[in-house]
Amino acid sequence: MRTLFPGALEFPLIAVVASTFFLSSPAWAQANFSESFQGVGDGTTAQGGPPTLTARGWTFRNQSRPNNGDSPYWTEFAGWGQVGSCLGHGAFTVWQNSSTRISAWIILPAIPGQIAGDPLTLWTSAPTNAFGMNNAVLEVRYSASGSIGTGSSDTDVGSFTQVLSTISGQGGHAWTERTMSLPGTGRIAIRMVFPPASSLFDFSGSFLIDSLRVGNPPPLPYPLPAPGETVHWTTAMSPVLLSTAGTGQSPRIVPGGTVIVDPGVEVRVGNSVVFDVSGTLALAG
User: Fold this and answer.
1) Is the CB of residue 58 less than 8 Å from the CB of residue 189?
2) Cβ proximity of 59 and 242 under 8 Å
3) Taking 70 as the threshold, does the pLDDT of residue 70 lie above it?
4) Cβ count near 212 (within 10 Å)
5) Is the Cβ–Cβ distance between 202 and 155 less than 8 Å?
6) Which of 177, 153, 280 shows the shortest CA–CA distance to 224?
7) Chain centroid, CA 61 distance in Å
8) Which of 172, 109, 110 is nearest to 138 (CA)?
9) Rounded-to-integer distance, Cα 83 and Cα 250, Å
10) Element (H, E) at 38
């Protein structure tokens, strides 16, 4: 048996990297939607977020009221994610005043198969400034009617009157998974808010989001270990197709987990997949 230490991936020995990689998706009664934010690119002032996502049906709206007429927009933060990239917004470098407020919207596309009780899961992180401050707030909102109106002012919420979760950035926090239950088939929005503040330092903050998922993903056709657990990838599973399909997250061997790849097993890695080996990957034979 040959053991690869954490983070050491020697794919020529065990893997075939697929230049074109497709997986068929099974039919599910519930939603099965995910977004990893890998490779979505930079946001723009005009669109309020990455054009790659708007082309997929996402909507970004900046209804902010900064005193200089300018505010950041949602954009890809490469290498800052829970795994790989994430979507981020925030951080100010100009003086603000007590009438300033930020209201930056993300509206998810309509999600096929979404029903009441479907879980909405996302990861959030709230970095702090040099003074350990982050006064931003992230809201997850719901529109029962399915309308995506958000009004026009910095205080308007339009059709998104139901708050599913309010996440404070106060003091900052590391990557944290959030899960909430959806009330029905309506639309979902995420809104970052900075309330008015008297100074730039009080008005500093940002939020990062990653690995967003609606619905329960289909089970993986191969096992991934929990900490302290050892699993085998067997010839019955071959080829093992590593992808983000169904979860929005790249596959990961967690610290303390071990995967043993049995002799004859072919491992294929999909495009844009980050295979995170924080545990141990061992080659048998």
Assistant:
1) no
2) no
3) no
4) 24
5) no
6) 280
7) 19
8) 172
9) 7
10) none
